[in-house]
Specification:
Radius of gyration: 19 Å
Number of domains: 1
Number of strands: 20
Order of helices and strands: EEEEHEEEEEEEEEEEEEEEE
Distance between the termini: 45 Å
CATH superfamily: Mitochondrial biogenesis AIM24
Strand order of the largest sheet: 13-18-15-7-11-9-20-16-17-14
Shape: globular
Structural class: mainly beta
Length: 243
Amino acid sequence: MHSTLFAHVPVESTGRYTLQNPQLLKVEIGQGNGAVLARQGAMVAFEGQVDFQSQYKNRTWRNVERMAGERLELMKVKGAGQVYLAHYAQHIHVMDVGGGVTVGSGSVLAFDSSLGVGIVAVDSAVEVASAGAYNLELTGSGKVALLTSGEPLVLEVTPETNICADADAVIAWSTTLRTQMQAPTSTSAVWRRKGATGEGWEMQFQGRGHVLIQPSELLPPQHMRGGAFGFGLRGNSMGGSRN
């Protein structure tokens, strides 16, 4: 058999996470490493003795999911071997969590189970039911694999340079940043999905850190209620998932 397809063989590496191409990730399981938590259905192939289990979530986590109307179903991957992960051919980026990262649940592919997991919820006083719904706050020593639609852009935030971004394009940000949602300038546009300008809800970042955005906008926030045109996000350490 002869084909250019045979140029696409596994990339060898001693690291735990290795990109095979921009849209396919190989994860080494075992060899002294703990388990990996990955989004359910992301496995496209594996080698060796690898076990996949549904990840338990406590009652607080499930309650937050129900109220937010959004769910991130995780599976625990353990054993010994290699697992190949992908999700709708989105671009994959592996990063160290470092001082902490907050990420939209829909942009998570996998992360080390040793990381601490908290939930950052939209301020309930404003009752915006789907402005990202909820986000995961990852802390500790370890890595996370993120998904973007297209090649992303990293923006640095400093006290002198505050950053605003379309809420539907934001993927992740440093947990050190202060975050606030802002409505379109036209009050009548608040009640329409994109308003007269074509722009929807914006996220404002202040402090010192970084923001990761993608060159694609998801569906804008819907089911908006309440009279306020600006609101904050607040972090709640609810249902941390550790292993």
